[in-house]
Amino acid sequence: MKQVETSNKLKRPIYNIIAFLSIIIGGFVFVFSLYQIYSFMYFEKFRPKEQNFSQFDNSSFLPQNRFNNTERRFDKRLNEFLVMPFSFIFLISGAISIISGITILNILKIKEIEKTKKDIINVLLLPEEKIVIDVIKKNGGSLTQKEISKITGYSRVKVHRIVKSLEIKNIIEKREYGMTNKIWLKDD
Question: Is 167 in the same domain as 96?
């Protein structure tokens, strides 16, 4: 048992390091790809329009036509840029990396909270209550009060008082089961 606890203690910092690196690298990749998109938009907007002088048309020199052609060319080039596999994969991988890092940190936090809850409950429980909980755990998570009384050797009145105390502490749930009650351990 001690060896398993030691290996879990060693893994926790490694998971934290992996999560933080994932967030940092993902953030860098995501910001870099956004910068790449911004720089493309900025430089493309002010890039001079390429003119084909072989076809001389007076209408192309009108300000309205020049603006509309630039606008269409910009939209087309931006769409091409965003659909390029490398840019798109770069942006998506950055977002996925950030999300995975945050998810790892949340999972670690949830496990730590559960462990703390169990430790607090164990400190607050009486020895008889711990015995009853262990008996219920060993028998699949549910037993009748009569079965608990037989296994533990406690009187039915004592088992009833222990069950009532555990029910008040929100550790077990009591359901009617014929003429007796069936005791269930709560999942949380």
Answer: no
